[in-house]
């Protein structure tokens, strides 16, 4: 009777272990399904969701840091055609994008429309000096006029430049160069980012994800249009992806992330680089694809972005993007800072540039489950182009077209400790608890099953020997 009870107990134990193991195995897909449903629900852009609360507000603080290229030999460049030598000066830091979205409207096609107010507040604690620090930089008016005014009229432009004492370079404050000053040549306000304070970026229409979570945050329209009208090409004029602040949940390392940047008037993509720990949260780092600004000879997709054969050396120049078509004809070229990934020619034409992937690349750190961007650094350099002229005195010694760096910007933000704890508490702890629970059930169940099964076999074997 005792042996029978022991065998029955071992059988019961084995059955119990098997049940635990099955529960653990079942809990994984069921739990994952529950988590997925919860995440997808909270990722929809509509009042009451976590995504909406983060989306509608200013969110984490975004800073724009500016480094200027201070010209060290301006007189020699003008008088003898010397190669310009620059020295980086900065950062000068401003708090930006601190205002909530405005004019939010939810539309019948599952999109939300809004405009984004922009402003800049100087932060002296994160700057090397004050806004009144002065920099020797390219004269914006002279270079713009050189490109806009036809060559046949350069003699007239020369007369106006002489009358207004305008040269190729100017000596102005950081505040003036960024946000505007009264220019004697144009007799109007000029500045690298003028006008800015009190203006809006937009308007945008983005998908809410309510009917299809894979489309959440993707831009449907910008300025009322589904495509751009800068490049005269269907491919280059496409508006792809989100605004980079978030992506669809459950990010796949193997799939590039697409986003549109109004600063550079085009869509770009970022590829996975590595997994990192950000305040105890695993994030995927996606960096700008290196061939984004490659020459069309290397990346044929960029052919339609090349608009001027003369300044781009028959479209063989890498590392710059001519955005004059979306800047009212101003000769502005965008690049990564210090012409990172650009042609050697760019750095040979201006001395003092030292590109570094660590300091000058653009990246996004994305939490893979929610698709939220928790840290980013968008790094852009603003350049202008000038060339030789037989009629304009300050350009007579210039030997070739020069794409000249004015300033580079690091727009950056990262979640703070409070937000990190909220994410870890609301999401990560639930995922970890689920992971521990199914592993514990599966492991314990398998262990009990094996111990009881082996013990049962031993008891049966011993009984057979006694018999």
Overview of the structural elements:
The structure is a single chain. The protein is α+β, with helices and mostly antiparallel strands and 467 residues long. The protein folds into two domains: 59-98 and 120-197 and 227-415, no CATH class; 429-467. Helices cover 30% and strands 28% of the residues. The protein contains nine helices and 19 strands. It has helices at 2-43, 50-56, 74-80, 140-148, 154-163, 174-179, 344-349, 357-360, 417-466; strands at 62-71, 86-96, 102-106, 111-118, 120-122, 134-138, 169-173, 181-183, 188-190, 199-207, 219-222, 257-261, 266-278, 281-288, 320-322, 332-335, 363-366, 373-386, 402-414. Strands 1, 2, 5, 12, 13, 14, 15, 16, 17, 18 and 19 form an eleven-stranded antiparallel beta sheet that branches. Helix 1 (2-43) packs antiparallel against helix 9 (417-466). The chain is elongated, with a radius of gyration of 30 Å. Mean pLDDT is 86; it is low at 17-22.
Strands, total number: 19
Number of helical regions: 9
Q: What structural class should be given to the helix and strand makeup?
A: alpha+beta
Largest sheet at a glance?
11 strands, antiparallel
The fraction of residues assigned to DSSP E strands is: 25-35%
Helix content: 25-40%
Order of helices and strands: HHEHEEEEEHHEHEEEEEEEEEHHEEEH
How many separate domains make up the residues?
2
Shape label? elongated
Rg computed from alpha carbons, rounded to a whole number of angstroms: 30 Å
